[in-house]
Amino acid sequence: LISTDAGRIICVADVRGNISQLNELAKETGAIAIIHSGDFGFYDESSLGRISDKTLRHLVTYSTIIRPQLRNKLLHNSTTAQELRNVILESSEPLLSEFPLFRDGKKKLDVPLYTVWGACEDVVVLEKFRTGEYKVHNLNILDEANTYVIDIGGVSLRLFGLGGAVVHHKLFDNGEGSATIAGGHGTMWTTILQIGELVDTAQKVYDQTETRVLVTHGSPGREGLLAQLSVVLRADFTISAGLHFRYGISYNEFSVQSDQANFCAKLESSRKTFQEMWQSVKNQVEGCINESQRILLQNAFTVVERVPSANREEPTFKNMWNFNLPDAAFGWVLLDIKEGRVSAEIKAQGIPIDHLSQT
């Protein structure tokens, strides 16, 4: 719990192991807290052996802790997968993630950080946080069981989070994970039980005086299931990661849909996609879940079935505001909160257009 008369919160995405950058951004903007929407860099010394070759090349491609010259060398066609792994393993400087330095206390987070995990993380590392084996000062992980309140400038922000990629055919697959979280080969995805438990968590702490913020890795603008979840949670704001965008995006559904019927059609499409998948796995799932899991599954079904009527006004269509973030290397959104008002500034590196003057 943070409580202060006024303050700024910086919202960023995809630091990809360059965790020190968060301290730099907080100092630059005067932020008293950070919200991060995934691809944080949850990798430790043992993670390399679990990451697939494809995922590893992806991580190197978008890393900002690897010097450009070295990155180009690592990604060259002549560099084999094993050679790439050897360079990362033998380096005296972290090339995969700074996380071990923060875990060991050699570096620290200067302000409280609230993050979900992204699509590229190690599920084994996240599970070590759940067992208490790993702890990092000022690092707060938003997930289906943990929610936090930030009291700033007369506004109580209630933070909820859902990590991982939304992949419909993996919603019932835990991969190498246990309990409700899932992942494997250096990647993580959302499960249906996560969604069910998040609904339960949100119901238990509901307070109409709070402003609800849903932080996800995937965008509710692209993923109908996340849009349905935001409606069920009665979110006032959503904050999500972009697809390596150079600009942050701020919108409500009213601003990007011709009418509410189009918004409802997106949610209906999500419902149909899920139901088709559910019918193919229903017997197998119902035969192996326990009673507590069955309750979570029913909670998740309330999300799947949440499709507002096109003929009845849905408050979230106009009132819920969405922020889709660029990668941290390119920009951020800064929330400035005081006197009961949440204002926003968007900073972006932008898109190079100097080539236009040369044509």
Q: Can you put this structure into words, describing what you see?
A:
With 359 residues, the protein is α/β, with parallel strands linked by helices. The protein has a single domain, classed as Metallo-dependent phosphatases (Purple Acid Phosphatase, chain A, domain 2). It has 12 helices and 15 strands. The protein has a 7-stranded mixed beta sheet. The chain has a 6-stranded mixed beta sheet with strand order 5-4-3-2-14-15, with helices on one face. A two-stranded antiparallel sheet has the order 8-9. Strand 4, helix 6 and strand 5 form a beta-alpha-beta unit. The mean pLDDT is 94.
CATH superfamily: Metallo-dependent phosphatases
Largest sheet properties: 7 strands, mixed
Global Rg: 20 Å
- The succession of helices and strands, N to C, reads EEHEHHHHEHEEEEEHEHEEHHHHEEE
Name the CATH architecture: 4-Layer Sandwich
Mean pLDDT score? 94
| Morphology | globular
Class from helix and strand fractions: alpha/beta
Keywords:
359 residues, 7-stranded mixed beta sheet, single chain, Purple Acid Phosphatase, chain A, domain 2, 12 helices, alpha/beta, 34% helix
